[in-house]
TrEMBL record:
The keyword Methyltransferase applies. It comes from Torulaspora globosa. GO terms for molecular function: methyltransferase activity. The keyword Ligase does not apply. GO terms for biological process: methylation. SUPFAM superfamilies: S-adenosyl-L-methionine-dependent methyltransferases. This is Methyltransferase domain-containing protein.
């Protein structure tokens, strides 16, 4: 997936407009992890969304390394780095751990590897064998992500939001496939390679489940991603999609911006909303945890 690596990809807007992950989820990750807590590598870290959160919320780890193939994303992550010397960032492919140095790379030295909102862009078999070569026995492999936000209190807008992402005359043709479809399906059929990994723990949440919260079990409640934002903020979130970036590259300013048009459609279909109205937005989510054998 190269869109996020393009020099004109707006990593700053990505950082501002994308959701982060709830503390409850990091509590699950903390509890799942067994044994030594030296180093976590967060692959496909983008602007460091989960890397920074892990540094704040995972107990006892000494080092957090975010890696991403996009120089633009890593520059953004580095710019956001504070004085926490435990956190660092590297430009690297997800399959390549040579940044660890000869003494550590491919020698099963890591305690945790995470891949957040990015594994759908990867060849999962190749990625799993790279992770297996670097994760110590008993170490944690954690993947999670989200897609397809909806306005919780406005189910009548579900079709409008779905259309902007997937209709053929909107962003539908601009996604890289099969990655997007895999994410849309919450990596439903993606299984850990049992030669390398065991003790799978996983959960999924659909926005529809949140409209009837009594239907959620405890494991699902860990990764509820929801956020209050204005309708205009939502358009800014749409502008962080790789498909939007590709749409914009193709259309330029030759027609009305597709995300701005979405705001108009939302306010027409639901007249009580204005661009400044605050709405509660939630995402379909999944997580999958496993332990290195
Ligand atoms: C949707 S962003 C997710 C960023 C961050 N993990 C988060 O939770 O918001 C996906 C990231 O995966 C990165 N990526 C895609 N393919 C990659 C690859 N083959 N190797 C490393 N990073 C990759 C992209 O550059 C992008 O920053």
């Amino acid at each position: 997936m190269s869109t996020f690596s393009e020099r004109d990809f707006d990593a700053e807007r990505y950082d501002r407009s994308r959701p982060c992950y709830p503390n409850e989820y990091y509590a699950v990750l903390n509890e799942y992890h067994q044994g030594v807590r030296h180093c976590v590598v967060d692959v496909g870290c983008g602007p460091g969304t989960a890397t920074f959160q892990m540094a704040a919320l995972l107990n006892g780890f000494e080092q957090f390394v975010g890696t991403d193939i996009s120089q633009t994303m890593i520059e953004r992550a580095r710019a956001a780095s504070g004085r926490d010397e435990r956190v660092s960032f590297q430009v690297s492919s997800a399959y390549d751990f040579s940044f660890l140095g000869d003494a550590k790379a491919n020698r099963q030295t890591l305690d945790m590897v995470t891949a957040v909102e990015c594994v759908h862009w990867l060849d999962f078999a190749t990625f799993q064998s790279s992770v297996a070569a670097n994760l110590r026995t008993g170490g944690t492999f954690a993947i999670w992500g989200y897609a397809d936000a909806a306005f919780i209190d406005y189910p009548e807008l579900d079709a409008v939001l779905d259309d902007v992402s997937y209709a053929n005359d909107q962003l539908g043709p601009f996604w890289q496939q099969p990655g997007r479809n895999a994410l849309r399906g919450m990596l439903e059929n993606w299984v850990f390679d049992t030669r390398y990994f065991t003790d799978e723990q996983s959960a999924k949440v659909r926005v529809a489940d949140l409209r009837t919260p009594q239907g959620l079990h405890a494991q699902q409640r860990a990764l509820i991603i929801s956020k209050e934002m204005t309708v205009s903020d939502y358009a800014n979130y749409v502008k962080t999609f790789s498909a939007y970036h590709t749409w914009k590259t193709k259309h330029g300013d030759s027609e009305q911006d597709i995300a701005d048009r979405l705001v108009e459609t939302i306010c027409r279909v639901q007249p009580e909303l204005t661009p400044d109205s605050k709405v509660k937005v939630a995402w379909n989510t999944f997580y999958k945890l496993a332990r290195r054998i």
